[in-house]
Request: fold
Amino acid sequence: MQLLISSPWWFIGLCLLAGALYTFVLYQSKWNNLWYKLCAIFRFLLVSFLCFFLLSPLLVQKVSMVQKPIVIMAMDNSQSILSNKDSAFYRTEFLKTWQRAKSILGSDYDVQYLRYGSQLNPTDSIYFNEKRSNIGQVFDYINNTYAKQNIGAVVLATDGIYNKGNNPLYKTFDNHSALYAIGMGDTTIKKDIIVKEVNVNAIAYLGNEFPIDINLAAYACNNNSSQLNVTIDGKPLTSKTIAFNQANFFQHLSLSATADQAGTKHIVITMSTIDGEVSKINNRKDVFIEVIDGREKILLTYNGPHPDIGALKEAIKANTNYEVVSEPVAEVKLSDISKYSVIIMHQLPSRANNASYIINTARTAKIPIWCIVGNQSAIDLLPTVSGVAKIYNNQGRMNESQAQYNTNFNTFVLETKTQETLAELPPLDVPYGSYAASDNAEVLAYQKIGAVGTKLPLWAMVNQNGEKTALLFGEGFWKWRMADYYNNENHLATNELVSKTIQYLAVKDDKRKFRVYPSKNVYEEDESVRFIAELYNSSYELVNQVDVKIELSNREGKTFRYTFSPFNKSYQLDIGAMPAGIYQYKATADGLPDKVSGQILITPLQTELLNTTADFGTLRQMANKNNGQFYKATELETALQNIKKNTAITSVSYTEKKTDELINLKWVFFFLLLLLTAEWFIRKYEGGY
Reply:
């Protein structure tokens, strides 16, 4: 135990001196009385202690702590667990044993439950209803949440089937915890017909033919046959008999259909069932294709070769609504400019080429421009693109700047994952100086220089006098695209940034006072459906004082009604996950005759039912790699008993220094109270009060 004060130790003498002076002034005339001498001592101690507490004394003591071993019970909550003959066992007896783990292990262990599937939740409630299984997230969650804690064992109950995230064989526990893998499900190959995969383009163009590639599989169905039927919007496309000539059957079929009408097409592929088939839900697959009647042409012109050019082209081509033409500025023909919906100018205007003929022609034809600024840009010529693009006091200098998403940006909606990814991307090379766009643009992302967030725009949108301009004040987009793939194993975030910027530029000005739109048009079955609504007054200012409602209806005639919540100056609605299908929506605002309608698609997930054969081999490898053992589901209680027998799984004792202010100790309060009470009682008894 150690006592510390914030002042020099000789200050304690001043505290004692203050106590002595106070006592002398109060009791000098009564010093001959023995009881008053005792009062004087009490008063001296009281005042000295109170003065001492003004020095903020700290008491440092070593405290011994004992942490029980944590046993984490992680259960696979996906649909495939119940798609076998032992489903009743897993719902009843197995779950009862699972939830008795605390009583089986006893009070010497800290038992904590996790449930995982598509998402992970710290709970012991199990429903076996999730449509994806991500085993790898269990390792990530435990490594992040329980870092440096005493993890004794992880009990992982699963069938070993994963269809989301990384291969769990490449995952390990950072603290070398023992993994007790509990094998659920059935490893025997069961009689099953599966529409394994259907590949179609997300978009087809009106009048064109589009391919439909179908992969069929069948297990233990030899000497049987099934009828394949393909329909589009309920109309038959083809029907044929598929004969299964071997136990493990696979066949690939290629079909084609004509996009004869604009809109969303619902394609259904079904295989008829046979006697003894274990699962029938995977005999059907639903896919959707959007038929549109044209593509936007995008011109990407540049001052000189740069890795950004290739990265931008790939991001643009990810959206099949867009056709990109890439040309050096010297090769752009004036007569071709009017063909394009958007012109992207990379590091133009430059010293070598002011690109004035492109800028002037585009502005005359009211073609929007996206200007990307970099080291080759002529900063003083940027106002020829837009007055808002002006940068003051540049002097040829550049900074490195990361992106900081502007939460008040409402020109369009970015996915939450894109917003999060934006903050993790590497810095771009941006021009130094003061920006006119700081006050006259809708800023999507601000510059973050080092650890300091600024109000300097990095990515901004401008709409002045009907002229639309996008501004990216930085080069190095290729680094963003690489980092996006490294962090997320896809390019969805950078694709969305480019696609929605072009979409904003290409869309003609909407003068409607009431607008409603989904965050995207196609969702998967386990995604949250989100809508944004905007209401404008006569001055085209955003307002949100009235109720906005929306009604969704599916093709079966079922209707869902919701009310938007005000958000900033607009409205938002998060419906959550919805069943698969095509939904028509109609939105209204109280007191306004305007109505907004449209449709969204919810694509079904059948991932969990494509493969229902348990993979115990993977579980054994995971257990061996993580210092553990493999058990069958019927051996769960044995596994828990073996955890108790494992001498390596034990409590950990450690000491730590605990610092507390001395005045916080309860005995100090009661001691001072005792001094005051004793002094008061004696003075009262002696007639001093």
Q: What stands out?
A: The chain has five domains: 2-64+657-685, 69-187+614-650, 192-291, 296-506, 514-607. The two ends are 42 Å apart (CA to CA). The chain has 15 helices and 37 strands. The chain has a mean pLDDT of 89.
